[in-house]
Amino acid sequence: MMKTVTIVGLGYVGLPLACLCADKGFKVYGLDIDQTKVDSVNRQISPIDDDYISNKLRNLKNKIIATTSASECIPASEVIVVCVPTPVDRNNSPDITALMESISTISKFIKQNTLLVVESTIYPGTIEEIVIPILKKQRFDACKNDVFVAHCPERIDPGNKKWTIENLPRVVGGITKEAAKKAAEFYRGIISADIIELSSVKAAEATKIMENTFRDVNIAFVNEMAKSFDKAGIDILEVIKGASTKPFAFMPHYPGAGVGGHCIPVDPYYLIEKAKQIGFNHKFLSLAREINNSMPDYTVELLEGELKKLKKSIKGAKVGVLGLAYKANVDDIRESPAFEIINILKTKGADVFVFDPHVKKGINVNGIDELLNKSDYIILATDHNEFRNMDMEKLKKHKILAVIDGRNCLDNEKIKAMGILYHGIGRH
Question: Of 291, 318, 344, which residue sits at a domain end?
């Protein structure tokens, strides 16, 4: 059995994986360039607001050795798993700088016969076109199994208590059959779910892109339906509930103020860009991205519509934004549409007050009460439990005039009964 594992990147993907490996009896190193994060992990304090990780770190009692030194951990490891960010740049082009730098560093210290797995989301062809050539510079030929190179696309849903890193099925693909076999063997040793070996590393790379592009397209569809139904005076949630009674061929997706996270708003661009290089134009995927990117603007337009009813202007309006995280009950702000909503509001001259109980950076009030006290209008951008379960009477107490429910999670009838204007995404 392989005894020592290095996880490269101690973020939302790498840190849970490091905890899982340690829990399963591996000696685990965590390699990261962020000294603050490294120090935090070594003190058994999670740098991420996640109960699962926090509890695991406390119970593992120093079984994860976090470090910024590749020379300390890479040569000592039989398995290396790369979990570094792969975002898009301002032009929505894939940015694999962190991956390239990580592989370059690893290649200088990796020993022969090591299993090297990339979990970072990448476009089909990245392993063969980027990773393998970097290894070859150090005279490692992955095709001859000098190093066993494989891809196992990460699957993790921050805050999801039902589906965790321990029980989600995974797929693997290797540069060689032996590499795929070794990767599958490693994951079967830590995960209580099916591990599927695909025929090629490209197929594994394409799997994650396919999964999240599917979500993006379906969310775009329901966002467009919400805009349409809004004009027709139809409640989108009621329609989704009705359609969900069909036991086949329908899967409910829900509209919102925008799509966030590291996967759904990013992965389609990886496929769009790669397809361009090989002479294919993804019109459908590009349109889905266009629709979902329009939702922060649309959300602010809904507020402007309610202001018009009050004969008020958005310029100088005191607007409270509830939530910065991209999804409920986590501190993950990656690609969060809340930031775009805030930018649009400020550009239009509004005074903006922001609060998120899970996020410290970016807020400018100390709590919900202070935000409500300073605001005349509310945009809910994140459906945290603290907002869902908020005493609606507070809205009346603080004389809130209009609520834009960007996640359709508030009691619209109760809000309207208090004489407050309400507008959700496809819901009045």
Answer: 291
Task: Clarify whether residues 232 and 182 are in a common domain.
Answer: no
Per-residue confidence (pLDDT) for residue 252, from 0 to 100: 96
Crossing angle of helices 283-293 and 267-277, in 10° steps, is: 150
Q: Mark whether 101 and 81 lie in a shared domain.
A: yes
* Residue 299 shares a structural domain with residue 285: no
What is the mean pLDDT of the segment spanning 243-255? 96
| Active-site annotation, residues | 263
- For residue range 258-277, list pLDDT tens digits in order: 999 988 999 999 999 889 99
| CA 372/CA 394 separation, integer angstroms | 8
Instruction: Quickly state the pLDDT bin for 2 (edges 50, 70, 90).
Output: low
What is the residue range of 329's domain?
A: 294-424
Of 57, 108, 55, nearest to 80 (Cα)?
108
In CATH, what number is assigned to the domain containing residue 388? Answer: 3.40.50.720
